[in-house]
Amino acid sequence: MRLVITMAAVDRFSLLYREISRSCSFYMEALAIVGAWYTVRKCVSLALDTYSVLRLHVIPKLSGEIDLVKKYGKWAVVTGSTDGIGKAYAEQLAKHGVNIILVSRNKEKLEAVSRSISETYKVETDFIVADFSKGRELYPAIKEALKDREIGILVNNVGIFYAHTDYFTNLSEDTLWDLIHVNIASATMMTHIVLPGMVKKKKGAIVNLSSGVCCQPTPMFTVYGASKSYLDYFSRSLHYEYASKGIFIQSLIPFVTSTNMVAFSSTVSKRSILFPTAEEYASHAVSTLGLSIRTTGYWKHAIQWTLGECLPEWMWAWFALYLSRILRKEALAAKAKSE
């Protein structure tokens, strides 16, 4: 009797399983199609990303150099050009035969860099002394100095950071105004001065130096990051306004580079596999000119950007806050030790 009941139960279970499988087959097929579609999309996305990396960071290095003078014009204006990325970028443009106009606040450094570039790369150089923290009073003189030049490339590189990573309320009013005048107003007004001439010639390029901290909200970089986010938005929007007029506008978004801007920390100011020198960064960044309107400019930084975008905002912010506190503590300890 027990054997019969057991067999009947097995039969009923087998029948039930067949009925359930039959009714679910449609859903299984639908899920299989969704899975296949997701896989195809990911594969296509990976292929496009790989192609983009090769097009930006590999192919330009293998192919012949682009004639920047013919493509954009004889002269390039580079702001913040006596140190770091600005100086290195100016040298790379000079290497391509472009004449350079350096703009910075230190006359002695300007003279030295101008002479060095002219002698090394056999191009014409000039310089304009300008302290962008002074606000709108200096732009009429800059406009007058540039009015008879054929400006083909403008590199808005000048920028400042805090003395070290810090909380917003610890920043002085002078620091906040300097960040606004130097990081935001300078690029806006320099572009306003140079762009009409480019439009008239129907060719030109403008490069605005943003920062990787605008990838996601970054605490203790708050005002600096916001100013760099402005440049990123400004560049991308302006490109769509003027691309049809032959003007190429690029938002360049580097991550940490070993320059004086990060000298407050011995940890991030040293060259490493993730932190290139300004010269190494600039040699890659210049090769992306004319190819991408928004790029980190360097393949290692591109990997960092991709990883940063994958992180949830809270995780990025938590890690940034943790790291910033360490850097602040390190900077304050070094300052106390030197006093």
Automatic annotation (TrEMBL):
| Domain of life where this protein originates | Eukaryota
Q: Name one GO molecular function term.
A: oxidoreductase activity
Q: Mostly located where?
A: mitochondrion
Alphabetically sorted, this entry's keywords are: Mitochondrion, NADP, Oxidoreductase
Q: Keyword check for NADP, yes or no.
A: yes
* Example of a GO cellular component annotation carried by this entry: mitochondrion
Q: What name goes with this protein?
A: HSDL1 protein
Q: Which family does it belong to?
A: Belongs to the short-chain dehydrogenases/reductases (SDR) family. 17-beta-HSD 3 subfamily.
Q: Where in the cell is it found?
A: Mitochondrion
State the organism named in the record.
Lamprotornis superbus
